[in-house]
Amino acid sequence: MIVISNQAGIGKGLYTKQEADYLHLHISRNLSLNGITIAEYYYCPHHPTTGKCICRKPDSLLLEKAIARFNIDASRSFFIGDAERDIEAGHKAGVNAIKIEPNGDLRSVELKMKN
Ligand SMILES: [Zn+2]
Question: How would DSSP label each residue in 1-51?
């Protein structure tokens, strides 16, 4: 399991990379209590107002990085997101994309992955 997010708040100066990394550590610690491991967190720290980058979703660079680094079979993988840009990024990278509602129930995703 890999997490890929846009963290434009860093580019806007709302929080730092260190704080984002700390949040990821916090998430990993909590998930590990349930036996869940996040292999890696990738994020775009840029904000669109500070210039164009190629890592911000809906661009797929971060997905492609993960696919290459972990030797992932994209066609057999799923990218779950709550925004249209997530779905677009998934499709660009050749991954099956599943859209959920913000803060949606992930149990509904399991059914889609089986079909
Ligand atoms: Zn970026």
Answer: -EEEEE-HHHHTTSS-HHHHHHHHHHHHHHHHTTT----EEEEE---GGG-
